[in-house]
Write a structure and sequence with these properties.
The chain has 175 residues and is of the alpha/beta class. The chain has seven helices and five strands; from the N terminus they run βαβααβααβαβα. The chain has a five-stranded parallel sheet with strand order 2-3-1-4-5, with helices on both faces.
């Protein structure tokens, strides 16, 4: 386990990326969400490994990218904040009907024992070209992850619905 690797997970459109920007501004290392990077690459290349076209192929790529992100950050000193990560990707792969990898990957590649979840927050939720699913799908994803992390032995901490600076203070105070 790496006590330096902190996961921000939870509901799509719940403010994870904004929180990561604040943590980066404060001098912490951050890793952008694998899924968003894959969507950007696939859209640019005219690919089909997109969650709305081929969720299983998308999730497989997300698992591989999350593993590569972890390896790339091993030499980084200090706290490293991940916008989603391996557990999210493995959970999506299982949801898409792929093989059952969540328990094995989750046991082998541990993060900090405390995971921060952004709750559903309809007032700030917005779709975009890379987030085409609606709020109901985002809520269902949140509920799946809310079950997955504790099942793997993580303590989940629900982030308060407060301005980003307060959220960052909240996270850092609990580490």
């Amino acid at each position: 386990m790496s006590d330096r690797f902190i996961v921000l997970s939870g509901c799509s459109g719940g403010g994870k990326s904004t929180l990561l920007e604040e943590l980066l501004r404060r001098g912490h290392a951050v890793v952008e969400e694998p899924g968003r990077r894959i969507v950007q690459q696939e859209l640019a290349a005219g690919g089909s490994a997109l969650p709305w076209l081929d969720l299983e192929a998308f999730a497989r790529r997300a698992v591989a990218l999350a593993l590569a992100d972890r390896a790339a950050m091993r030499a980084q000193s200090g706290l490293v904040f991940f916008d989603r990560g391996l557990i999210d990707a493995a959970s999506a792969l299982e949801e898409a009907g792929g093989e059952r990898v969540l328990a094995a990957l989750g046991a082998e590649h541990r993060y900090h024992s405390r995971v921060f979840l952004t709750p559903p927050w309809p007032e700030i939720y917005a779709g975009d070209p890379e987030r085409r699913h609606g709020f109901d799908a985002a809520r269902a994803e949140y509920e799946r992850l809310e079950r997955a992390y504790p099942m793997l032995g993580y303590e989940t901490v629900i982030l308060p619905k407060v301005p980003v600076a307060e959220r960052a203070d909240f996270v850092l105070a609990r580490l």
